[in-house]
Specification:
homodimer, Nucleotidyltransferase, domain 5, about 375 residues, alpha/beta, Arc Repressor Mutant, subunit A, 12 helices, globular, DNA-binding, five-stranded mixed beta sheet
Chain lengths: ~375, ~375
DNA sequence: GCGATTTTGTTCTTGGTGAGAACTTAACGG
DNA sequence: CCGTTAAGTTCTCACCAAGAACAAAATCGC
C-alpha cells in the first residue's frame, strides 16, 4: 500500500491480494474460493486470473470435483512463472534453494566455505549456475546483525565490519535482500510455522548466543538501523557479572545458549568452537548425568526468566524458539515455564504467553530468506511492471 | 486499509487521506498544496473537498495570497464538524478536553476525584454537560495497564481488577477508547511532538515507576492483551535484589523513578504518596545537596543503562521521556547518555539513539487520548457512514 | 436415467473514479 | 496594460468492480 490513488492501482492491488492469497494458502485455492477469500465477485476474479495467467504468473488446472456444482479450477503457480532464490550462510556451509509462488521450496545446492567473505563469491557462482530467466530475486540469511543493511558483524566468523556492497557486485539477480538469520527464522514461523496468524509474537533462535525478532502481524521488526532483535544483549538475568563479547556487562546471552553451557564446563567460548561439546552436554543431561543436567537446568531457567521479562514489555501471544531452544523445550519445558511465570508481573500470570518449539525446523532461516525474497514478486510495484 | 476493493472504496480512501493530511499538517493546507501532498489532480481534489464540505467535515476559507497565481482556499475544520473528547485521569484529578480536525485542543473542565472508580461517573457527567451533536468519540487516559481492554490495574489508586465495562454504561458517546497514559503520551510525541516522522521509537513516562511504549511508524504497540509497554518490569538494572510491587524481583522500576528516589531517603514507596518529597529531592539535588545529588545520579544511571539495553533489542532511532524523565535529562543528560552507551553493544555506540525530552509536556496523555479518539473520525469506515 | 438442485463461469450493463487536456479565472509584475 | 503564473473548472476518456441474468457442468433424489 505504498500509495493507492487511481482505479488502475485498484486492479494491481487486487491482483496482488490474489497472488498473496495463493502464496499463503495451505492448499491450492480454487478460483471460486479465491473469490470468497478476497470478497470479490466471480466476474472480477475471472478478469484478475485471466491477466495473471497471460502474464505468466498463474496457471489454471481443472480441480477435482467435490460435491455438486460446476467444476472449477485450481490456481497454481505458472510453470514458467517467477521464482526467488534463497541462501543460508551458516558457520562453515551454505545452502541455495528456490521458492516459487505457493511456497514450494526446492533445494539447489549446498557447499562449504572458508569462513571469509569469499562465500559471497561461492553463492554468486552457484546462483549463476542455477539461474534461469525465471529468477527474480535472491534472499540471503546471515548469522549476525547487518547495520544499516550493509555493514555485517558476524562475531563467530570474525567478520567485524564487512561491507556488503563491496561483496555484492552488479552481476547478481535483480534484487538482493540480506537479513539476519534469527529474524528470518521468526518470519518463517510467522508465515509457515507455529506463529501463523499471530498478531504480536516473539521468536528466538538460540545457538551459541540468543537472537530473535519481534513479529507484528506477520512482519518482522527491523528497527531504525536494521539491527533490532539483539535481545540476547539485555541484562535480563544479570549474566553472572561477566562481560560479554559484545562489549556489555551482564548480557542474557551469557546465561542462555551453547556458550553458557560450555562455560559451565570450563570452556571459554570462542568464535563458534564447541558446538559438538554443546550437543554432548545435552545428551549427557538427557542420560541423567548430574553436572550436565544442572547446566541445562540453569540454561532453561535463565531462558524462562528472560522470556518473562520480555513478555512484560512486549506482551506477545506466543513465543517460538528454534535451535537449541527446541531441545530446551523438549527437556525442560516445566523449568522454562516456571521461570517465565516468575518473571511475569503477577496480574499476567493467568494468561502467560505460549512458549512453543518452532515447527519450521532448521530450514527456518532459509525459508525466511525465501519468503522475503519472494515478497518482491508479491508487491504492487513489481506486478505493475510485469503485466 | 481494512480492505479496499471497489472504486467506491477508492473515493473514501482518498478522502480519508485528505482528512488525515489536514489533521496532521503543521499549518493549514491550501487546496492546491493538498493536491500536491496527496499526489492527486486538481480536479480530483475539487471533488473530494466538495463532498467533504457538504458532509460538514471541511470548511473552505479564502487564503491570503502569496505571490502570483490565482488565489486558493484554506482547508479548515468545519465549524459544525465532528469533535472528539479526551479525558485524562490522574492521581486525584481529571481533565476533559475537546479536539477537532487539525488537532486544536480545547480544555473543557477539570475536577478532583476520590480515587475510586466513581471518577468514571464524574467524567460521564462532565461529558454530558459539554456534549453536543458534534461529539463523536471519547478517549480516556489511565495510569495503568488495561488487560484485554477492559480490566484495569492501577496500583497507585489501589484498583486491582476494575472491570471497565461495568463502569461504562450505555449513555456514553458512540465510541469510548480507553488506553494507558504512558502509551498515549508516546502517541502524542509521535503525532505532535519530538517523535514526528520517526519510524521506530520508544517513549517512556517516568512517574513513580516507569512505563512506556514502542512506536512504529507513528503507531503505538498494544500487544496481544493490550498490556504491552511495561518496560519498567524488566530486570534491566538488577533492582538491588528487591522485590517489586508487581510481584517480580529486580524490576528496572525499582531503580528509576520517584519511588527509587524516595527509597534512597528511607521512604518505603506506597500508593502514590510522596510526590511532593520527590520534587524536593530534585530541587535539593539541583541546589547542590550531596545525598540528594547521589540519589538523582543513581536514578539517571539506572535510566541510561536500561535505555541502552532496550536499544539493543529494539533499535529505536529516538527515545523520548516525559514526567520525571524531563527533569533527569535537564539535570543529568551526560550521565544518562554515558550509562546508555555502556549498555549499548559496542558496534552500535557510534550511532546511539537520540534521547530527548518530550515536547508535548504534561498534556501528553490528554493529547494522546484526543488523538486516538479522533482517529475514529479519520477512518474509512466512519467516513463511509457520514457521507 | 432423467429432471431438480447446486455451484461456478460468462456476458452485458451500469455507476463510479481518477487522469488528462483544454480552458477560465484571478492574482502579480514590469 | 498586457504577459506571466498558479489555481479552479469542465469535459472526455479509460478503467474498474458490482450486479443481474444466463449458461454450463457437476451431484442428488426419485
Amino acid at each position: 500500500m505504498p500509495q493507492m490513488k487511481t482505479s488502475a492501482d485498484l486492479r494491481v492491488h487486487n491482483q496482488t491480494r490474489l497472488l498473496r492469497a495463493v502464496h499463503d494458502a495451505d492448499q491450492p485455492l480454487t478460483r471460486a474460493s479465491a473469490a470468497r477469500v478476497l470478497g470479490i465477485g466471480r466476474n472480477t476474479i475471472a478478469a484478475l486470473v485471466g491477466e495473471l495467467e497471460t502474464a505468466g504468473l498463474l496457471h489454471e488446472v481443472p480441480a477435482a470435483t467435490t460435491g455438486r456444482g460446476r467444476p472449477t479450477t485450481l490456481l497454481l503457480p505458472h510453470p514458467r512463472g517467477p521464482v526467488a532464490f534463497a541462501a543460508d550462510i551458516r558457520e562453515d556451509s551454505w545452502t541455495l534453494a528456490q521458492i516459487e509462488l505457493g511456497g514450494r521450496l526446492t533445494g539447489l545446492e549446498t557447499g562449504e566455505h572458508d569462513r571469509t567473505p569469499a562465500v559471497f563469491d561461492d553463492i554468486r557462482r552457484a546462483t549463476r549456475r542455477h539461474a534461469t530467466d525465471r529468477l527474480v530475486s535472491l534472499g540471503i540469511a546471515l548469522a549476525g546483525p547487518i547495520l544499516d543493511g550493509r555493514r555485517l558483524h558476524i562475531s563467530h566468523l570474525g567478520w567485524d565490519e564487512v561491507d556488503l556492497y563491496e561483496q555484492i557486485g552488479d552481476d547478481w539477480p535483480p534484487t538482493v535482500v540480506v537479513d539476519n538469520d534469527a529474524r528470518l527464522a521468526g518470519l518463517a514461523e510467522a508465515r509457515r510455522g507455529a506463529l501463523r496468524g499471530a498478531g504480536t509474537a516473539l521468536h528466538f533462535h538460540i545457538d551459541f548466543d540468543i537472537g530473535g525478532t519481534l513479529l507484528l502481524g506477520g512482519h518482522t521488526q527491523r528497527g531504525a538501523h536494521n539491527i533490532a532483535g539483539e535481545f540476547g544483549h539485555m541484562p535480563l538475568t544479570g549474566g553472572s557479572g561477566l562481560r560479554c563479547m559484545c562489549g556489555v556487562q551482564g548480557c542474557w546471552s551469557l546465561d542462555v545458549g551453547t556458550n553458557a553451557l560450555l562455560r559451565r564446563f570450563g570452556r571459554e567460548p570462542g568464535y563458534g568452537a564447541g558446538r559438538q561439546l554443546g550437543r554432548e552436554i545435552l545428551a549427557r543431561a538427557e542420560a541423567g548425568e548430574a553436572e550436565a543436567g544442572r547446566a541445562v537446568d540453569d540454561n532453561a531457567v535463565a531462558l524462562g526468566r528472560g522470556l518473562g521479562a520480555l513478555a512484560n514489555a512486549l506482551d506477545p501471544e506466543a513465543i517460538t524458539l528454534s535451535g537449541l531452544g527446541v531441545e530446551l523445550i523438549r527437556l525442560r519445558r516445566d523449568l522454562i515455564e516456571h521461570a517465565c511465570a516468575e518473571g511475569l508481573m503477577e496480574f499476567r500470570r493467568a494468561q502467560p504467553p505460549r512458549i512453543l518449539a518452532g515447527t519450521v525446523g532448521e530450514a527456518g532461516p532459509l525459508r525466511g530468506a525465501a519468503e522475503t525474497a519472494f515478497d518482491a514478486v508479491l508487491s504492487a510495484g513489481w506486478l505493475r511492471g510485469r503485466i
